[in-house]
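Wait, mind explaining this?

_____
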Amino acid sequence: MLNKLKHSSFYYFIACLSIVIGLVFQDFHKIPLTGGIIVLGLIWLGTLKFKEKFKTLRKNYFALSFITFYLLHLTSLLYSANTPVAQSDLELKVTLLLLPIFMFSTLLFSQQRKIVLLNIFAISMACMAVYDFYYSFLEYTNGANISVFYYKNLPHLLVGKPHYLAWYYSFAMFIALRQLLVVKRQKIVWLIVFSILFLSLILLSSRAYLFAFIFVFIVSYILWLSKNRRSITSILKLIIPLAAIISIVLIIPNTRSRIIDTYAEINKLFDKDEHRQTNPRVYIWKYAAELIVDKPLLGYGVGDAKDELTNSLKNCEALFWDGEKNVPLNRKSLNYHNQFLQSWAEVGILGFLLLLFLMIAPFFLKNKHPLFLIFVGLTLIGFLTESMLERQAGVVMLAFMFPLLASLNVDEIEGSNRNKK
């Protein structure tokens, strides 16, 4: 339905391409990202047929979930005492309302163009990784130590956002893997793209996404084996890359230290005697749960939820290892470090359930493209350890990629690819 105007699909593609490029430059140049969203909205308005579009939206549970999720945040403005913070949050999350409306109510453009767009995303992520390596190398040659290549020091375009960048890169790696395994064209290019992103993911040392990538890779490969002929060779193709990943993670000093920190945190989580607590999440989640129990239905409002957590943590005497020394946790201003808890505390149990639905329901649908399920799986794991929707980098990625990937049909695309071989 809907995209019957002669040039609308091309304009939709250009607008989405601008958004993809804008993801790279979002912290420095807002025009590609903001401009792409505005142009997408103008095309949506210009193509008219609003009755058909809203009829399509009413039939799409994902679209309704996004819309309702945002409206809950809007409603919470009524009971948020900190109005400026609430308004700022609503502005931040407005793409969770707009992009699903624009993208779920139209066909946008062809399935093949959607794959092209995803390929461009993967290549642009590899380019961003090369840019980061280059500037870290310049800093190193100017006297900085080797740490410029690790964790928060590595990103130069998405400064200080290793967790978000790891999310982007891990998904881009699966796009590259798809090109290597399914399309079987330009293998060298995609192998280079994958290798660059793989090295970047390890150096970023985002433990959540190192785990997420390995876990989703194993599950995806096992499901692929279940549909194809199994052999010793195919099993080795799973074991050898995993062994390589684990070996590289343990060889690189900074990444290895992050894994050791994880072991300390697990010990602390189970109340074992561990004096070097490296992660505040153990305490944040405990205090967050207590806050949610007090107001489970409506939450505290988007303006007040973080303040409530900060005030609650003032009673926490735990120490947090900042890399050099133990510092009191109650001196830091922290979010919930879990998007599900964050949403529940902000807008109540319905917000939590809607977010859970968006992260779980795709796995029960038939004929959904593997890249859609992979993206949701990676996002779900990321949401468990970070409040990913507290920054533009997380909001736009979810609001844009979810509806784009949800519209992919595995039978149509893979059938077309087989015909090209």
